[in-house]
Design a protein that fits this description.
Proliferating Cell Nuclear Antigen, DNA Polymerase III, Chain A, domain 2, 9-stranded antiparallel β-sheet, 29 strands, single chain, alpha+beta
Length: 378
C-alpha cells in the first residue's frame, strides 16, 4: 500500500474515527486504526465493538485531488501514535507506505516515521446491516435532537436501559425520550421515512454524544438505519455504527401529566440566571435544592437556604400565572439543564401539585418537553 494525501483531510478523518477507539479493549487490534487504500480513495475505520466509525476520503472532490493512490492495500496502525504523528506533521501532504512485513513509513517534508503495523485481515468486520427500516433527517436537526435529550440519560449502570435514549418511529414522526427517573427530556421531529412501520430502539447516550461531535452543522440529510441490534448513521463520507441497548424501555407516557393546575410563563434567560444564582449557595448543600413560590399573579420567588452557608432570595417577574398558589422544591442543576435544552425566549411551566412532576416547554411549541420530579424538603 502506498498513497499521498492532503494532511488536513487525513487529520479530520483520523480525529473522527478516534472517537470509537479505546485503550480499554480486550481485542488488542481494536487499539488501532484500519487504513484501506484502493482506486476510489482511502477508508479509515475505528471501533471499540460498541461503536464503529468508518470515514472515507475520496480521491478527488470538486475537481481538486485529495489522494494520489500509488498502490492499493491495507494496514492497521496504533491509533494513539498514528493520530499524534498526523497532528504534528510539518507539511500539507503526507505519504504513507506499508511494506510486505507490515512495516509502515509515514513521510512529510523531511520527517520520516517508521511504525509497526498489524494485518488488516485480522481486524473485525463492520456489522452487515439490512436496510429495511430507513429514514432521514437533516444533520442540524439530528444534532438538536441529541442536545435536547441526551443530557437526561442515567449515568448509573443499575438500570442499563436508562443509559440510552429511546427513539420511536411512527406515522412519519421520530420521538426521542431520555430519563434517569428524576427527570425526563422529550423531543419530536418529522422525518422522511420509507414505510409505515412502527418501531423503536434504545441508543446508548454515549454513542449519540460521540456522533454529535463528529457531525457538522449542515442541512444535509443523515440516513439512519435501525435493525434489532444496531443503528447506522450515514452521511456523505461517514458511517457511524452503534449497538443498541437490550431490553424494554419503560413506558414514560404515564409520567407526563395530561393536565395542569397552575401554569407559569416566564422569560427563559431571566429564569435560568435566577436559578443559577440561587444554586450558588445550594451547591454546597446535599441536593442542590432550590425552591420556587408563586407571589400573587405577577412573579415567582426563587430561594435557596443552606443553614451553614446562608440564604438567597430573588424575585422573577412572570408573563402570567394561572391557577392557585404554589411552593415547590427541585434540583437546580436539573432545572438549568432543562432550560438550556429548550429553544424560545419564553417557557411555560405546568404544575399539578407540590409533590407531582412538573413539565416545562417553550410557549407555543409542543414538540419539546422537559419534566422534573420535585424534591421533598421535609
Amino acid at each position: 500500500m502506498r498513497f499521498i494525501i492532503q494532511r488536513d483531510h487525513l487529520l479530520q478523518s483520523v480525529q473522527d474515527v478516534m472517537k470509537a477507539v479505546t485503550s480499554r479493549t480486550t481485542i488488542p487490534i481494536l487499539t488501532g486504526i484500519k487504513i484501506v487504500a484502493n482506486e476510489k480513495g482511502v477508508t479509515l475505520t475505528g471501533s471499540d465493538s460498541d461503536i464503529s466509525i468508518e470515514s472515507f476520503i475520496p480521491r478527488e472532490e470538486e475537481g481538486s485531488e485529495i489522494v494520489e493512490i500509488k498502490r492499493s492495500g491495507s494496514i492497521v496502525l496504533q491509533a494513539k501514535f498514528f493520530s499524534e504523528i498526523v497532528r504534528k506533521l510539518p507539511t500539507d501532504t503526507v505519504e504513507i507506505e506499508a511494506g510486505e512485513n507490515l512495516q509502515t513509513v509515514i513521510r512529510s517534508g523531511k520527517s520520516n516515521f517508521n511504525l509497526n503495523g498489524l494485518d488488516a485481515e485480522e481486524y473485525p468486520h463492520l456489522p452487515q446491516i439490512a436496510e429495511d427500516r430507513v429514514f432521514s433527517i437533516p444533520t442540524d436537526l439530528l444534532k438538536t435532537l441529541i442536545r435536547q435529550t441526551g443530557f437526561a440519560v442515567s449515568t448509573s449502570e443499575t438500570r442499563p436501559i436508562l443509559t440510552g435514549v429511546n427513539w420511536r418511529v411512527a406515522d412519519g414522526q421520530l420521538t426521542c425520550i431520555a430519563t434517569d427517573s428524576h427527570r425526563l427530556a422529550l423531543r419530536k421531529a418529522s422525518i422522511e421515512a420509507g414505510g409505515e412501520e412502527t418501531y423503536n430502539a434504545v441508543i446508548p447516550g454515549k454513542s449519540l454524544s460521540e456522533l454529535s461531535k463528529i457531525l457538522d452543522d449542515t442541512t444535509e440529510k443523515v440516513e439512519i438505519v435501525i435493525t434489532d441490534t444496531q443503528v447506522l448513521f450515514k452521511t456523505k463520507h461517514l458511517l457511524f455504527f452503534s449497538r443498541l441497548l437490550e431490553g424494554n424501555y419503560p413506558d414514560t407516557s404515564k409520567l407526563i401529566p395530561a393536565e395542569s393546575k397552575i401554569d407559569v410563563v416566564v422569560n427563559t434567560k431571566e429564569f435560568l440566571h435566577a436559578i443559577d444564582r440561587a444554586s450558588l449557595l445550594a451547591k454546597e448543600g446535599r441536593n442542590n435544592v432550590v425552591k420556587l413560590s408563586t407571589i400573587e399573579e405577577k412573579s415567582v420567588e426563587i430561594t435557596s437556604n443552606t443553614p451553614e452557608i446562608g440564604k438567597v432570595t430573588e424575585e422573577v417577574a412572570t408573563e402570567s400565572i394561572e391557577g392557585g398558589e404554589l411552593g415547590i422544591s427541585f434540583n437546580a442543576k436539573y432545572m438549568m439543564d432543562a432550560l438550556k435544552a429548550l429553544e424560545g425566549s419564553e417557557i411555560k411551566i405546568s404544575f399539578t401539585g407540590a409533590m407531582r412532576p412538573f413539565v416545562i416547554h417553550p410557549v407555543n411549541d409542543d414538540t419539546t418537553l422537559q419534566l422534573i420530579v420535585p424534591v421533598r424538603t421535609y
